[in-house]
Structures are given as C-alpha cells and as structure tokens.
Design goal:
single chain, alpha+beta, 4-stranded antiparallel sheet
Length: about 260
C-alpha cells in the first residue's frame, strides 16, 4: 500500500512542476532581452528601459543586454538619444526565450538654420550684460509655507494668483489631477527610481512623462500654469524638474483638498 502512496506522491509533484512551468510569470519575475540598432544590428549600450506599469527603470550593458522586473501585458518603454522611442508589450514568449531582440530605429533630423549670435554680443562685458535677456519670472514666498511659488511677470495680480492657487486649489486643479488619479500616484515611485530620474534629467521633450502619466503635453502645461510656474520655467526645465514641480503641486493639492 505504501508503494502506491509514494507513486501518487511523485505523480503529484510532477503535476505541480508542469503547472508552474506552463503558468504565467508572476509580477516579480525578471525578463531579459537585447536592444540592437535596427540598421546595423549592433547591440546598443546605455539604452534606458522603463516598465511603465511597475515604475521601474534600468539601462542596457555594453552588450545591449538588460533585465527588468515585469509581468505579462506590462509595457516596456525604450529611449535613447537620436533614436525613436519604442513601447513593447510583454508576452509569455519573452519569458520563455532568452534571445529576444528589441530593435530601435535612428531618427532622421532635418536641421533648421542655427543663429550663432542671436544677441549680437560685442565681447565687452559692460555692453553685453545690458543686451542679455532678463528672466522676468518672480517667486513669492508665504509665511508658514516651506516652498515658494513662481507667478510670472511682476504685476499687481501676481500675488492674488498665488493665493488663489493655494487657498482654493480644488477649483483650479481638480479637473486636471482628477482625470488620471492612478497615473498621479506614480509620481512618488518615479522620483524614487534612480534610473528613471537619470532618464528624465536628460530629456526636455516631455515624451517620457506623457507615457508615464498618460497626459497630453498641453495637460502638463495646464497643470504647471495652474500651479503658477512661469512660462520661462515650463519652456526651459528638463523633464525631471517638471516631474518635481508636478509632484510638489499634486502633494499640496491633496493636503489642501482634504481640508475642504
């Protein structure tokens, strides 16, 4: 009788092994692949790879290889300067086969005319200082708050705009932040991932932020305008600075909105 019990036991173990082998990968499983140049098939080093669903980032090694935590149906976002960014949906086959290759295509730029000396600098410091453009974005600080607010040009309504954004944020921001509450919750995780921060610090096109937050570029600008960031800041800041600005504004919005 005990021989039959042992046989049943081993059959049961084999069934478990087969089930686990054929089951879907778990959320904490690692996926590995290689990124190559679509034109030359040469492996690409230092490509940024981001899991948009789990808010994780990594970069490829000298052989174009990377590993990242993922689950089936997660979206991986690939970004490299001079190449078209690409999104790939994770499948079961990508876990089973370790020779998956992701090809990135080079961008073709049509260079426009470049003005080397737009300000007609003379080389004399006293004269050139007067000709340089002046940033007219003023910041206002309010007693009791640890942060300051930009309010654009110095005019009588600037302080009123700042106070309005702080004292009545729901009217200004509820529609914007309320559209994508799940995406906004990613802000803190994005700030905590070093690879994502490094990627955003090198970009100025808002493309990666748009993919993460599922917002259009105009929505990002509306948020920053409603939070009283200057046009100069919105135009010149890199994506990491924009992330920090949106995150700061969102955290203040949540705190003040709970008190209403």
């Amino acid at each position: 009788m005990w021989k039959y019990k042992i046989l049943i036991f081993f059959v049961f173990l084999s069934f478990i092994g087969v089930s686990q082998e054929g089951g879907e990968p778990l959320e904490g499983d690692q996926i590995s692949a290689t990124v190559i140049n679509a034109q030359t098939n040469v492996p690409m080093e230092s490509v940024h790879v981001v899991n948009l669903n789990q808010v994780l980032g990594t970069i490829t090694n000298e052989n174009g290889e990377f590993s990242i935590t993922a689950a089936v149906n997660d979206t991986l976002y690939f970004s490299f300067l001079g190449f078209k960014s690409q999104k790939i949906r994770v499948t079961n086959d990508m876990f089973k086969f370790k020779d998956t290759k992701i090809a990135l295509t080079e961008l073709a730029y049509a260079l426009e005319e470049v003005i080397v000396r737009p300000y007609q600098l003379t080389g004399y410091l006293d004269i050139d200082v007067k000709n340089l453009p002046i940033n007219n974005a003023y910041q206002y600080s309010i007693s009791g708050l640890s942060v300051s607010y930009e309010a654009g040009n110095k005019n009588p309504s600037a302080v009123t705009k700042v106070l309005g954004a702080i004292l009545n944020p729901a009217d200004l921001l509820r529609n914007l932040f309320g559209k994508k509450p799940n995406q906004m919750r990613k802000l803190r995780k994005m700030k905590e991932d070093d690879e994502i921060r490094n990627l955003l610090a090198s970009k100025f096109d808002r493309e990666t932020l748009r993919e993460f937050l599922q917002l259009e570029k105009v929505d990002i600008e509306d948020i920053l305008n409603s939070c009283n960031y200057s046009k100069s800041f919105i135009r010149t800041a890199n994506d990491l600075q924009i992330l920090d600005a949106i995150s700061s504004c969102y955290e203040e919005f949540k705190v003040l909105n709970r008190t209403k």
